[in-house]
Amino acid sequence: MSAARRARVREAVAARELSALVVTHLPSVRYLTGYVGSNGIAVIAPEGTVLLTDARYAVAARGQVDDGVEVVVGARDLLGDTAAAVTRLTPRDATVGVEGAHMTMNQGARLTALLAETGDTARTLSPQTGIVEGVRAVKDAEEIAAVRRAAAVADDALADVLAQGVVGRTEREVAWAVLEALHRHGAEGASFETIVAAGPNAARPHAVPTGARIPGDTLLTIDMGAVVDGYCSDMTRTLVLGDPGPDLAEAYRVCHRAQRAALDAVRPGIACADLDRVARGVIEEAGLGEAFGHGLGHGVGLEIHEAPRLGREAPGTLAPGMIVTIEPGIYLEGRGGVRIEDLVAVTEDGAEILSSHPKDAPPRGGE
Amino acid sequence: MSAARRARVREAVAARELSALVVTHLPSVRYLTGYVGSNGIAVIAPEGTVLLTDARYAVAARGQVDDGVEVVVGARDLLGDTAAAVTRLTPRDATVGVEGAHMTMNQGARLTALLAETGDTARTLSPQTGIVEGVRAVKDAEEIAAVRRAAAVADDALADVLAQGVVGRTEREVAWAVLEALHRHGAEGASFETIVAAGPNAARPHAVPTGARIPGDTLLTIDMGAVVDGYCSDMTRTLVLGDPGPDLAEAYRVCHRAQRAALDAVRPGIACADLDRVARGVIEEAGLGEAFGHGLGHGVGLEIHEAPRLGREAPGTLAPGMIVTIEPGIYLEGRGGVRIEDLVAVTEDGAEILSSHPKDAPPRGGE
Q1: Which of A55, A101, A294 sits opposite B106 (nearest CB)?
Q2: Are residues A174 and A301 in the same domain?
Q3: Is A358 part of a structural domain of the chain?
Q4: Record: contact B100-A104, CB cut-off 8 A
Q5: What is the least distance, in Å, from the CA of B348 to any CA of chain A?
Q6: Closest Cβ opposite residue B127 in set A60, A105, A206
Q7: Closest Cα of chain B to A14: distance in Å?
Q8: pLDDT at residue B107, as a whole number
Q9: CB contact (8 A) between residue B100 and residue A105
């Protein structure tokens, strides 16, 4: 399966006139080779793919990698073997791509020095941005199936937690209940630290659950996701508890409309910035634009945040196979907040919504 | 509290003839400023300390930082504000230290360009290694107390799990039970993914728990830790289940002796490499040197792996306030493994063992 992925990366590498790409970002190493472990580097060249790891992972790595990937087991510091692999796989005057957004300055300096030591060559490193990320943004069928499974586990887990009741429990207790339910439904873990935030705490997009008891008559935001077979899901529901008061009720209604409008607009070919504008327009029209201080969404896959990005100035357009979140939010400092988020796969002619847990109906009145 | 830490970093910065240090590694940012969040950079200069973050963390950051730290809230990409802070706090011909082991090549190139844009200056970046890490290696009283609490929570959690019985449960079930017990005893989480490995799976130092049921008559390794107030603990116990057979029994006895010898040797002034040699000598003498394929231990604090390192070629010596693991292991491919690990604080005249869960007695016979 990863052979097709490597072919797409090789095309991008050739298009940038590079002789090879050294992949150091672990999720990308996994994506391109199958290797799952904490110490691995992949070298992708026209003539072959080499995975470098150390003795602790030798047995596991040989079992994990896909056909067409050569495993080299060496010292724990992989850069020496990386230089050797690059030397073997590229011409003497090669320009070798490295992942500039991930490789550290020390690694870059050392790899340059090691390449120079391998003889009278003039290989140079060229920091690149977004090569594997761009390929990973478009998921293959196996990946979409894995994210779908992760989303289903999160749906089931949230249903369990809400069936237990949440009012009167602390935010931390509910966050733990989410993790426990994710585990029970078969997740390898949570895809990020679950957010459970009621009342004023929900005015922070990145709220941390507290020891405060969840009151009635407010909004409660739960943002959660599962990891299944290495792939993440991401979903937010804001619960309308009793009567949250007119400000928060109105914020919920506006956010709900904005999210629906954006979901309806998801299709191949729409610009990521335009999709953001669909939701933002609804919120601005209601006079709440200032209260929506983040982008509309982001890609999800092996990582919880990956390409593409949906935001005011985000580049690019949606393509079939992309999986993104649609998550407008409205945050009222000191009072509370609302965010409604679904996970969506872009299809050939529209979108498949992967998260299916029902959303609370907008509170009535004042519309 | 962090003022004393910043003073120690300033001394190290001055000793390397730098005008300032840009700290991008988040655990070090937290250590030096008190900021707890996922987007922060600290600039440490003789004239002051600036913490840069974005609007999502503005309220939280202002509440978290210690006296003497100026908070600047700006764009989500912090490098522009970082360049401005560096320009304000350093002379025009400054050499500015950056964390070469953490700053990416892209960040380095961008910060260099941004500094050049700030006017007709000739500030240069100088990648540095280990400045904050060196300071963090020696813990203050508050840190030692936090690690002690984390170790106590892990002790209590392991006792609970073992009281439930482990034979016949799957490795994954027991790993989950550990997480559940850590949570119940007040941990913020596990300090790393718990390892539960029985029989041949324990021959891998970094074993991943499987769905296999734990049999009787073997060795079972449980490697676990808690996070409390941001600080980690780390402890491994190998349980002797029934009769593990002569090879594994002998491996347990040797590892137990090696660990005891190393614990007895912990004191200020001993070289990190010499301490490794104490344990390794016992294992080599028993003819099992090849089966101990990793270093003796590592520092523990805000991160589960930090300075100092205890290994064959590790530099440096122990000093009061350091907290390290002592964890020799013996791994017999296809059969099983043993690792026994305690967390130890170096004191003025010896050591305080922070992990107190009892170790299984060495199996009798064959000695």
Answers
A1: A101
A2: yes
A3: no
A4: yes
A5: 34
A6: A105
A7: 21
A8: 98
A9: yes
Closest CA to A250 of A287, A215, A224: A287
Nearest-Cα distance to chain A for B114, in Å, is: 17
Q: Is residue B361 part of a domain?
A: no
Q: What letter does residue B138 receive in the DSSP assignment? A: B
Instruction: Find, among B87, B26, B90, the residue nearest to B53 by Cα.
Output: B26
Q: Report the residue of B57, B104, B304, B312 to disrupt the A interface, i.e. the one with the largest count of A CBs within 10 Å.
A: B104
In degrees rounded to 5, what are phi and psi of residue A108? -60, -45
In a shared domain, residues A214 and A224: yes
Residue A293 distance to chain B (closest CA, Å): 8
Residues of A in contact with B205 (CB under 8 A): 56
Residues B332 and B290 in one domain: yes
Eight-class DSSP state of A217: S
Let me know whether B152 and B267 are in one domain. Answer: yes
Instruction: Give the domain-ending residue among A120, A136, A152.
Output: A136
Question: Is B172 contained in some domain?
Answer: yes
pTM for the model stands at 0.94
Q: B222 and B88 in one domain? A: no
Is there a contact between B103 and A100 if contact means CB atoms under 8 Å apart? no
**Domain with A121 in it: what CATH number?**
3.40.350.10
Quote the CA–CA distance of B268 and B275 in Å, as a whole number.
11
Distance in Å, alpha carbon of B208 to nearest chain A alpha carbon: 10
| Structural domain includes residue A364 | no
Opening angle at CA B139, ends B134 and B140, nearest 5:
130
Rounded to whole angstroms, how far apart are CA atoms A142 and A308? 19
Could you tell me which residues are beta bridge partners of residue A170?
Answer: A213
pLDDT band, residue B365 (cuts 50/70/90): low
Burial grade of B221 (CB within 10 A; 0-12, 13-18, 19 or more): buried
- Same domain as A295, residue A164: yes
The tens place of each residue's pLDDT in chain A, 367 residues long, gives: 799 999 999 999 999 999 999 999 999 999 999 999 999 999 999 999 999 999 888 888 999 999 999 999 999 999 999 999 999 999 999 999 999 999 999 999 999 999 998 766 789 999 999 999 999 999 999 999 999 999 999 999 999 999 999 999 999 999 999 999 999 999 999 999 999 999 999 998 889 999 999 999 999 999 999 999 999 999 999 999 999 999 999 999 999 999 999 999 999 999 999 999 999 999 999 999 999 989 999 999 999 999 999 999 999 999 999 999 999 999 999 999 999 999 999 999 999 999 999 999 998 764 4
Number of domains in chain B: 2
Q: Cβ contacts of residue B21 below 8 Å, gap of 6+?
A: B9, B13, B43, B44, B45, B96, B97, B98, B99, B128, B131, B132
Domain that holds residue A247: 138-353
Interface predicted TM-score of the whole assembly (ipTM), two decimals: 0.93
Cα pseudo-dihedral A74, A78, A80, A82, rounded to 10:
100
Asked whether residue B310 carries a pLDDT value surpassing 70, the answer given is yes
- Best to test chain A binding among B103, B105, B128, B192 (most A CBs inside 10 Å): B105
**How far is residue A131's CA from residue A312's CA, in Å, rounded to a whole number?**
23
Tell me the C-alpha distance between A233 and A227, whole Å: 7
Closest residue, chain B, to A37 (C-alpha)? B206
Q: Do B104 and A106 touch (CB under 8 A)?
A: no
Of B135, B157, B172, the residue that ends a domain is B135
Tokens in use for B306? 């930090």
Is there a single domain that holds both residue A13 and residue A38? Answer: yes
**A100–B98 CB contact, under 8 Å:** no
B326: domain CATH number is 3.90.230.10
Query: A43 with A171, same domain?
Result: no
